[in-house]
User: What shape does this take?
Amino acid sequence: MNKNMNINEQDIFKYVFYPQTLSEEKREFLRKNKKYESQISYYKSVKDAMDSETSFNLKKKIAAKIPAYTFANVFKLHVVKFEEVKEYPGKIIFAAKTKDDVPKIKTRTFIDNEKNFLVRVINFENSTKIYLFTPADDKVENITIKIFPGGEEFFVMDNSTPLVIDKRIDVEYIELRVGDG
Assistant: This one.
């Protein structure tokens, strides 16, 4: 088993929601590695809460068949739970390195009231990664992510890769606009 396997937030999400989409090697690595237990447990609790919901794409298809129904394409996401700032020491710590030099990573999870979307925001010292998931692993296209406070907007073609922002952005809530609307 590869001790230095590259695991990201999407891998952990897929391990819980869609394990068949990961290689056997990654599944085995995540199963045996205690480092990821809390994240896996967290996603399992989210999955349990979302399992009974109808998928975003299915709702969209149903709305297309009913002329009187206007499909909402804007979703406001709120924080699921507060997650403390975690400190992760680097692999090599030099003698001159102080505790203040240890990078801080802050993660927050957001979800909309209808449970169509789950967004995981990971703040590093000088950058931010935003992962967008759906409970049914739908591919969602043409997404505008508006971050509050501040109202900054970012466009992504689809949710297959995270949005990477070259600065740290503190997020209170998120508004997603999906599709052409």
Notes: Confidence is low (pLDDT under 50) at residues 82-97. Residues 37-50 form the longest helix (14 residues).
